[in-house]
Amino acid sequence: MKQTILYSWHENHGARLIEFGGWLMPVQYTGIIEEYWTVRKASGLFDICHMGEITVVGNRAEEYLQSVMANDVSGLGIGHCLYSPLCYPDGGIVDDLIIYKQAADRFLLVVNASNIDKDLQWLATYQENFKVQVKNISAGTAFVSLQGPESRKLLQKNADIDLDLLDYFSFQPARLRSIPVIISRTGYTGELGYEIFHFSSNGDQSQALKLWQDLIDLGAAPCGLGARDLLRLEMKYPLYGNDIDQSTNPLEAGLGWAVDLDKKDFIGKKALEQVKTQGLKRKLVGLTLTGRQVPRHNFLIFNQVGREIGKVTSGSFSPALNAGIALGYVDVAEAAIGNGVLVEIRGNKHPGQIVKTPFVPSHVKD
Amino acid sequence: MVPAELKYSESHEWVKQEGNTVIIGITDYAQEELGDIVFVEVPKPGRELKQKESFGVAESVKAVSDLFSPVSGKVVAVNEELSKTPELVNKEPYTGGWIIKVELSQAGELSGLMSAEQYEKLIKEGH
To answer: Is the CB of A317 less than 8 angstroms away from the CB of B39?
Structure first.
């Protein structure tokens, strides 16, 4: 199992470690709910070095990405980033990723840890005509995420750029106490937050450890993947492998805002146009349970007369709502907000309701 | 933290004897392994339990775990506090976080449970 550069730090600071996407990662330090509240109310620091980084370089890099990505890359300015699904020809999802435009001929893709090899293969299939270089730079990249309402104030103490000028989904090269980084105003929590890249060309990643420790010393609390999963679930941010995968399309997943059906062509466009014309069969919705039971992956969802209408894809307990919450695909005819549903948990059907998402207000633009 | 006066099961429940009834909860080790507990499902008073029968579940943020009765007998009380504050099981596993009270039908079963010393050995071996 792979370990990030921060692995020893986690071990020495009481982290409980679990396997995630082929990596041994901290799931919690002090407790999932405590870490969750730290991010909602103060600031938490996540090791996300397991995520993949891929560079796409060449004169026709933009044209190339425009032809493979579902979202519109042409409108993206240098220093800005864009969320996009990457689809199969049948509209299924290869991965969901963020595209960073570093220069007119240079892009950085941040992809899910478990999908790096698959993405590279998939991107390679289409790159030849465009003469672009696609390179996996994950091994030499450290990546951490500082999230929470106090993250700006805290990060500013170490940063040599004015963070007030960094808008949501934009990024800038900077130094954190002399360590060269890229600071990106992005995250997976629904809070104000920053993701920080450090690239080491010579394999020396001691700087990454230092930048992590510096942020901890300023008062950021280390947080694990357990809190991260709760935070993203309350925002209805999909998790690849749970809520989206090869068998789901971006339209039914509620990612239509990141699919540009008006652009000339991209992989999966025809299939997605057809989906749109025919109308969705099912939809990813958010639901809350009346009680404190926890709905989990693959639990069945029924309508109020007991007909099976779908399945939970992600579920947990929302500390903010003090109730079980879930994402799941349900038949489109049953997907209206306010509809009562039943979720089968250990043989009993528990009442709940389809609700508006995100489950809690987003603060990403604060 | 393994109180010396209690008896323990291999499935990490503790038993405190009070005459012919026992109080049952889960150990500090068990709550630590489960993490933040957000829901405890308890049986209705009056239910007859056999030894090692599942009498409920504890749900944490990340997992769900069956609770097994270390003894046979009738459930005479459940900890009502847990319906609103299940985190008591994390905070006070041996006191405020008790789960059920059972009237023993096979008092002899108690002697088959582990002592604190034996249980401590079990968790040190990582079970």
So the answer is: yes
Contact across the interface for B39 and A32, Cβ inside 8 Å: no
| Count of CB atoms situated within 10 Å of the CB of B122 | 17
- Chain B residues with CB under 8 Å of A27 CB are 62
The answer to whether residue A176 sits within a structural domain is: yes
pTM of the model: 0.95
Residue A226: list chain B partners with CB under 8 A: 35, 61-62
Residue B117 lies in a domain: no
Please judge whether B62 and A226 are an interchain contact, meaning their C-beta atoms are less than 8 angstroms apart.
yes
Interface predicted TM-score (ipTM): 0.89
| Total domains in the fold of chain B | 1
State how far the Cα of A330 lies from the Cα of A310, in Å rounded to an integer: 4
Q: Each residue of A12-42: pLDDT tens digit?
A: 999 999 999 899 999 999 999 999 999 999 9
pLDDT along chain B (127 residues), means of 10: 95 97 97 96 97 97 95 98 97 98 96 97 86
- Report residue B72 as tokens: 């046979």
Burial class, A164, CB count within 10 angstroms (exposed 0-12 / middle 13-18 / buried 19+):
exposed
Tell me which chain A residues have a C-beta less than 8 angstroms from the C-beta of B41. Answer: 293
Residue A67's CATH number: 3.30.70.1400
**Are A88 and A29 a contacting pair, CB within 8 Å?**
no
Query: Which among B35, B38, B41 has CB closest to A28?
Result: B35
